[in-house]
Amino acid sequence: MKAFVVDKYQKKGALRLGEMPEPELRDNDVLVEIHAAGVNLLDSKLRDGEFKPILPYRPPFILGHDVAGIVVRAGSKVRKFKPGDEVYARSRDGRIGTFAQSIAMDEADVALKPKNLSMEEAASIPLVGLTAWQVLVVTAGLKKGQKVFIQAGSGGVGTFAIQLAKHLGATVATTASAANADLVKGLGADIVIDYKKDDFEKILQGYDVVLNSQDAKTLEKSLHVLKPGGKLISISGPPDPEFAEKQKLNMVLKLVLRLLSRGIRSKARRAGVGYSFLFMWAQGDQLGKITSLIESGIIRPVIDQTFPFEETNEALAYVEAGRAKGKVVVKVR
User: Fold this and answer.
1) From CA 105, how far away is CA 28, in angstroms rounded?
2) pLDDT value for 101
3) Rounded distance, CA 240 to CA 218, Å?
4) Per-residue pLDDT band at 214 (split at 50, 70, 90)
5) C-beta atoms surrounding 314 within 10 Å
6) What is the maximal distance between C-alpha atoms in the chain?
7) Of 25, 162, 194, 310, which sees the most CB atoms within 10 A?
8) What are the residues facing 88 on neighbouring strands?
């Protein structure tokens, strides 16, 4: 099968389009013919080698995390899916490879594709949808009447998280450029701060939850918008000791991550708020709940651009430029 391959870790290195073996099908796996793949910043960071200590893939490996396609074969122990089912998923860590013509995935990571979405629209959802769900529902326990600050509202995670937070009954503040203000307001943002002109730290106060996706400076400023007992949840780091435990990292890495996050954890404690790092995980049941929200019209995908499969490198470069509104997708078939 044709696939885009990382031959060696290299910053902004081009992926190689080449022939790779068909994936091995395990007893709990479904083999999916890929129709579309979402493109994420995680893909380029992985290619650059930023996650080598915690996700040690050995080149050559196929890149890509988001997928929508059709089940063509099912393992002997698969009960949820059958050949012909249209599905979507975020492939689990250690078994990625959606920039290809097919992939084998554990059925626990897969959900039926929303009936009202195209393959390209469905492929845009899993990673950002699960990230937003795991931050707002699982970790924050966001409730009706609470206030949440979602940074970078016009990005992939932001466009999904705003819609989910509004569905949960929260007041939503976000940052966006003036050009994207109407987009995020249309998704449900109550307060839109022009990050080029205004400082969110001086405008927002008394918030219950912050979803941080930006740099260390923004992370620290986010502490000051939370009320006592509030939760600062970061998807951009630094990883904390709880994450190291969950990943079963070795003692050296556990110590490194403890030191890396010590500053922000100490400042959070002094401010009387909680800090946690979230690295989203594949989860088919959660994705199934997201499917229900999409099919009922509560959440809609936001796609900036779709690239043909042959232009996967160009799609990655476009995502890295940081100007995409919503998601970027590669059409495989």
Assistant:
1) 8
2) 98
3) 17
4) very high
5) 15
6) 58
7) 162
8) 68, 111
Q: Is 288 part of a structural domain of the chain? A: no
How long, in residues, is the chain? 333
Whether the CB-CB separation of 19 and 100 falls below 8 Å is answered with: no
- Three-state DSSP class for residue 52: coil
Beta bridge partners of 31: 73, 104
User: What's the rounded mean pLDDT across residues 210-219?
Assistant: 97
Do residues 230 and 248 both lie within one domain? yes
| Contacts with 182 (C-beta within 8 Å, 6 or more apart), sequence order | none
3-state DSSP call for residue 161?
helix
Structural tokens at position 176: 């966006």
Place of tokens 């890495």: 253
Contact 161, 174 (CB under 8 A): no
**What letter does residue 145 receive in the DSSP assignment?**
T
The pTM assigned to this predicted structure is: 0.97
Same-domain status, 72 and 138: no
39 lies in which domain range? 2-125+301-331
